[in-house]
Amino acid sequence: MAFNCFYDTKSRAIYRIDILDATDYLDENAKYRMAVYLKDTDLREKPDYLLDVDYDIEGSAGVREYECSDKKGNSISFYLDFYEQTNHFEAKIKLGKEKGTHIIDRTYWLDFFDTQQVKKRK
Hints:
Number of domains: 1
Low-confidence stretches: 115-119
Distance between the termini: 27 Å
Shape: globular
């Protein structure tokens, strides 16, 4: 079940976070996975990367922290502070040879589909 989705404004990748082995996001034992679709990847196909997600809610402000990684050394980390009133977040990205800080925007997974066809991203 899709839990969250983000669009990388620099690389144009899409990061979809899925919740696994749970009936809803309130399940404390839920496991999360991030599917990474690089620019021009068909979203109906296998993602370019699958990362395990450590997801925590920190402090009284409920800051959501995401630490995503795989055994090959790929990683994405970011946090969502809803008090900032923004949909733009800074993420530290290391995928393959690419490493850096990117801005990711909250988005909707289904917005990238158009009548069963993947929308061409600009």
